[in-house]
């Protein structure tokens, strides 16, 4: 099973969600990826996101380059989880053939609100987003194990 996390630039939220999921998951054959709907080519993971992943999971994602979302990504993914309702709607409108597997992360795990974009914020802002993602991913793993 392939899970795709999607945010705007693939330098903060979705790449943190990918790292958290792949580190915490012990489900055989399930792997997460991430992409952005509008990336800056060659942009790297934001400094604060990389620091939080390093401190909490001992993973270095600081040199990871942003990945542009493509239709191929949507086609090959079994579950697509966006960070906001707006992103979900944009993707569903552009690619209606995949709408049956596109959800917001928080909606899929019965949490309220969108995952806040920390881009340009201080470490406290990034930590708030990291905590939201960590909770969402833990609930996602629980849900996937129960299926």
From TrEMBL:
<protein>
    <submittedName>
        <fullName>Low molecular weight protein arginine phosphatase</fullName>
    </submittedName>
</protein>
<dbReference type="Pfam" id="PF01451">
    <property type="entry name" value="LMWPc"/>
</dbReference>
<dbReference type="InterPro" id="IPR017867">
    <property type="entry name" value="Tyr_phospatase_low_mol_wt"/>
</dbReference>
<comment type="similarity">
    <text>Belongs to the low molecular weight phosphotyrosine protein phosphatase family.</text>
</comment>
<dbReference type="InterPro" id="IPR036196">
    <property type="entry name" value="Ptyr_pPase_sf"/>
</dbReference>
<keyword id="KW-0378">Hydrolase</keyword>
<dbReference type="GO" id="GO:0004725">
    <property type="term" value="F:protein tyrosine phosphatase activity"/>
</dbReference>
<feature type="domain" description="Phosphotyrosine protein phosphatase I">
    <location>
        <begin position="1"/>
        <end position="143"/>
    </location>
</feature>
<feature type="active site" description="Nucleophile">
    <location>
        <position position="7"/>
    </location>
</feature>
<dbReference type="InterPro" id="IPR050438">
    <property type="entry name" value="LMW_PTPase"/>
</dbReference>
<keyword id="KW-0904">Protein phosphatase</keyword>
<dbReference type="InterPro" id="IPR023485">
    <property type="entry name" value="Ptyr_pPase"/>
</dbReference>
<feature type="active site" description="Proton donor">
    <location>
        <position position="117"/>
    </location>
</feature>
<feature type="active site" description="Nucleophile">
    <location>
        <position position="13"/>
    </location>
</feature>
């Amino acid at each position: 099973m392939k899970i795709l996390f999607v945010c705007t630039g693939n330098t903060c939220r979705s790449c943190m969600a990918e790292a958290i999921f792949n580190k915490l998951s012990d489900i055989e054959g399930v792997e997460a990826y991430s992409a952005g709907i509008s990336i800056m080519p060659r942009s790297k993971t934001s400094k604060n996101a990389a620091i939080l992943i390093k401190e909490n999971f001992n993973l270095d994602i600081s040199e990871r380059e942003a990945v542009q979302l493509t239709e191929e990504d949507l086609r090959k993914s079994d579950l697509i989880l966006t960070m906001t309702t707006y992103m979900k709607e944009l993707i569903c409108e552009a690619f209606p053939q995949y709408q049956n597997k596109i959800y917001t992360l928080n909606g899929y795990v019965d949490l309220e609100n969108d995952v806040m974009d920390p881009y340009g914020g201080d470490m406290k802002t990034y930590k708030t987003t990291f905590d939201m993602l960590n909770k969402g991913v833990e609930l996602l793993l629980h849900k996937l194990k129960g299926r």
